[in-house]
């Protein structure tokens, strides 16, 4: 594993502090102390506190986006693509839980160009899901690719930042597969005529949850 750079440390520590205390309640001096860095060095790596919030908020979308967009052109059935997307999504949430917490809770502090850029990244992520659903409809696998279906499916995964415990009983891959099963059984054509696979008929192991109010 490569050594953490100064900027990576700043982003990690800021994400943890913002997630724990809130963006507005975290001061620059406190951030510098936690990251063991001077204020001058901090502003060598970021433009402003708002820029830091943007850098934190975009990572969970930007990092998996290239892989997800490449999935669109793969020679795979749409239901397999959806399952892979679900795994990308849950891995990202598990790996970047503090940053995602900050985005969903404090992203409204971003204005102007920062908000526009972030909305553009999230629109690209949503488009991948929309295209995969449309491919599934065209293949006769899925029932719908309308905007409500897309946003509903994304909501199943996105809301997991509230309850996901990265140290829980199930790895994120298994959680992703369970959520993908929920999504797929709601989207597959003629689901009432399909028998439940034996592997899915058993009760899953409990998940250790960390519920927020």
UniProtKB/TrEMBL annotation:
HTH tetR-type domain: residues covered: 4-64
InterPro entries: Homeodomain-like_sf, HTH-type_TetR-like_transc_reg, HTH_TetR, KstR2_TetR_C, Tet_transcr_reg_TetR-rel_C_sf
SUPFAM superfamilies xrefs: Homeodomain-like, Tetracyclin repressor-like, C-terminal domain
One Pfam family recorded for the sequence: TetR_N
Molecular functions (GO terms): DNA-binding transcription factor activity; transcription cis-regulatory region binding
Organism domain of life: Bacteria
Keywords (A to Z) from UniProt: DNA-binding, Repressor, Transcription, Transcription regulation
DNA-binding region in chain numbering: 27-46
Name of this protein: TetR family transcriptional regulator
Organism (species): Pseudonocardia kunmingensis
